[in-house]
Amino acid sequence: MAADDTDKLKVCHFVTYYLPVTQNWIYSQLIHNEDCSAAVLCQRLTNPEQFPFDAVYPICRSSGLPSVPGRLIHKVFERYPLEPHLSTITRIKPDILHGHFLLESWRNYRLVKRLNIPLATTCYGQDVTSLLRKPFWAARSRKVFELGAAFIVEGEYMGETLAAKGCPKEKIRVIKLGVDVERIRGVGAGIGSMDNTADNDKKVRILFTGLNREKKGAVYAAEAFVKALSVRNDNQSDKDGGVDLELHLLGDGVYRKPVEKILTDAGVRRKAVFHGMTPYPRYLEILKGAGIVLAPSVCAADGDTEGGAPVAVIEALCAGVPVAGSNHCDIPNIVSNGSTGLLSAERDVDALARDIRVLSNDRRLRAAMGERGARYARAEHDIGKQVRKITEVYKELKKNFEFQAPTEHILYR
Asked: Is residue 141 predicted with pLDDT exceeding 60?
């Protein structure tokens, strides 16, 4: 039962932009937490029509030329001015501040330090791995670790990584990412519906998301797809009853051209569909039509990692789609190798191609893995359950936060 408005905790969330499609899980945390009254403080708006929410307060009111100087200042100094966030917080009087990504908590460091309000920070990956390789960011993070009351991570691997970077272990809380289980379950059959008809048994659609960053492993996904097709063509033809493979790629970025070149050079470009940047509802439709989701994540040259596990992996399991991925970060803690998917070493193209072949050749195996994955994801990653765990952290922080003696800097309480 939802709490009465007067009983709800007030939480101000810090995000950079409200809201990239790739951060849709933040939106889920906002709209599914019935025990908290939320407001969002951000640098500027992006995609507000996809993620409608009334209480969003951007620093830059425009995304056009007038906002460029301010955004450049934010980028260069990695700090926000106290206003307008300070006035917003003074008016709202939140119980908790919640920074999404360590970087965003740092950008609001001066603001938080000025207030007598506990700060929770959720760390997601790059903000702890590649970012903290830089000495000046490591120094900044130590200040945030000291100031912050709690640091939320999505898995044990991420928790150990954060502790190794200097975060006090007693401040770390492991809470798995939540997804909108009912929404994913309620989406129609999607493209293909290949497991529902005899004709579609001959086509297996493979879904990959992430052409924008090295850590997503786009090149290895393309190379493994080509190799899986090559081995298939050596042993069977489309006429002998074997299944056909089709690669669907979502998103855009610097790895689109390299991936297209790999597919073109191998003569299989026609077997790939590039969907580009896709609204979330359309993404779910494509997901429901997939037979396999690829997640060949790797540690990038600059140290960037998934930190935990890609949200796309959790959503795949929830949708009943088996995963072919890598033993990277917390992916093995989400995907059970041999039960809900198949995992191999990072950058092992041969092994990934083998896993694609094994899954694509066996419809019953895909169905069984999908069923087990759906049971797991719906039990462990339901957004309703996960936001309740986050709320318990909020309550703990509010209860245990030591009241500081009033000073000229404290705005209220």
From this structure: yes
Residue 321's Cβ-side half-sphere holds a number of Cα atoms within 13 Å equal to 33
The pLDDT of residue 6 is 66
Q: Long-range contacts for 323-327 (Cβ within 8 Å, ≥24 apart)?
A: 323/292, 323/293, 323/294, 323/295, 323/373, 324/292, 324/293, 324/294, 324/295, 324/296, 324/352, 324/355, 324/356, 324/359, 325/294, 325/295, 325/296, 325/297, 326/217, 326/295, 326/296, 326/297, 326/298, 326/352
Domains of the chain are 5-178+382-400 (3.40.50.2000), 181-380 (3.40.50.2000)
* Residue 55, pLDDT above cutoff 60: yes
The set of residues, in sequence order, having a beta carbon less than 8 Å from that of 31 and lying 6+ positions away, is: 53
Give dist(CA 298, CA 328) in Å, integer.
Answer: 6
- 67-71, 125-129, 289-293: which has the minimum mean pLDDT? 67-71
Quote the pLDDT of residue 407. 45
Q: What is the pLDDT of residue 298?
A: 96
- Cα separation, 377 vs 186, whole angstroms: 15
